[in-house]
Amino acid sequence: MVFLLGLVGYLTQGLVTRTMLSESALIMALIPRLNPHLYELPH
Questions:
Q1: Could you give the number of structural domains in the chain?
Q2: Which of 2, 12, 28, 42 has the fewest CB atoms within 10 Å around its CB?
Q3: What is the pTM (predicted TM-score) of this model?
């Protein structure tokens, strides 16, 4: 069953699965692209 949860699932006792972690990582990676005005450097 450990292989279904991944290491993060094992370490969190099933509270977080590798799918949940991957989805969160993808969403966080998109934040700067969805809100580029928040990440502009001053000239």
A1: 1
A2: 42
A3: 0.69
* Distance in angstroms (rounded) separating the CA atoms of residues 36 and 17: 30
Length of the chain: 43
Q: Closest by alpha carbon to 8, among 18, 28, 25?
A: 18
> What dihedral angle (degrees, nearest 10) is formed by the CA atoms of 34, 8, 17, 23?
10
**Which residues make Cβ contacts (< 8 Å) with residue 30, sequence separation at least 6?**
none
| pLDDT tens digits, 5-33 | 888 999 999 999 889 999 999 999 999 99
Return d(Cα 22, Cα 30) in angstroms, integer: 12
Its domain, for residue 24, covers 9-33
